[in-house]
Amino acid sequence: KAGVTQTPRYLIKTRGQQVTLSCSPISGHRSVSWYQQTPGQGLQFLFEYFSETQRNKGNFPGRFSGRQFSNSRSEMNVSTLELGDSALYLCASSLAGGRQETQYFGPGTRLLVL
Amino acid sequence: GENVEQHPSTLSVQEGDSAVIKCTYSDSASNYFPWYKQELGKGPQLIIDIRSNVGEKKDQRIAVTLNKTAKHFSLHITETQPEDSAVYFCAASLYGQNFVFGPGTRLSVLP
């Protein structure tokens, strides 16, 4: 089975721009979660989507948003980029996102904001 | 909310020795505890997990122990090899926020 894929792998943007990242989950997985990883804050939960609905949300500003399509693929959008948004953005998929369910991570998209 | 602490932040061992990484969590309602290994340029990969109704789980050279009373769990790697060098993250599952991760431990296995 193919793993979680994320595109693009690397991205350079300037402050004030917006960016859209894409995640394709493992076939059959319906839950997609997004995380931000930085050296200072570690891995932080952004939000989770299940059946095209945002089910859980972390403590991030409204500039961070996402959506999920009927084929379970998900996109994450960050508007009005700030320098502090530079990070590795990871998505993880699981079958249904239950509390004891294994999450499988993609390779991440590395975003650099200049 | 949930808080997960992880120690040590860096760990160096000689090849063949054992490595132990410890995590503590704050929410007694958490009941799923996975461990992930992250190599340079890659996303985290699940290496072992444990649920709250189990005290210990082993998979070849890797084992995890859980003490629910004390709210801590540990990763044990025996007979370490250079390819075990990576950053290891523990996590605890919390309803409403998915997983809360520890800050990570950078393990270096010296040949």
Task: Describe it.
In chain A, the strands form two sheets. In chain A, strands 2, 4, 5, 6, 9, 10 and 11 form a seven-stranded mixed β-sheet that branches. Chain A has a four-stranded antiparallel β-sheet with strand order 1-3-8-7, with no helix packed on it. Chain A starts with a strand and ends with a strand. With 114 residues, chain A is an all-beta fold. The mean pLDDT of chain B is 92. In chain B, the strands form two sheets. In chain B, strands 2, 4, 5, 9, 10 and 11 form a six-stranded mixed β-sheet that branches. With 111 residues, chain B is mainly β.
Q: Which pair of chains has the greatest number of interface residues, and how are they split between the two chains?
A: A-B, 22 and 24 residues
Major pleated sheet of chain B: 6 strands, mixed
Count of individual helical segments of chain B: 0
Structural class of chain B: mainly beta
Specify the oligomeric state.
Answer: heterodimer
- What order do the SSEs of chain A take from the amino end to the carboxyl end, as H and E? EEEEEEEEEEE
Gross geometry of chain B: globular
Beta strand % of chain A = over 45%
Radius of gyration of chain A: 13 Å
First and last CA, distance of chain A: 37 Å
Round the mean pLDDT of chain B to the nearest integer and report it. 92
Largest sheet, strands/sense/barrel of chain A: 7 strands, mixed
Low-confidence stretches of chain A: none
- Number of beta strands of chain B: 11
> Could you give the distance between the termini of chain B?
41 Å
| Range of helix content of chain A | under 10%
| Shape descriptor of chain A | globular
Secondary-structure element string of chain B:
EEEEEEEEEEE
Task: Assign a percent range to the helix content of chain B.
Answer: under 10%
What's the total helix number of chain A? 0
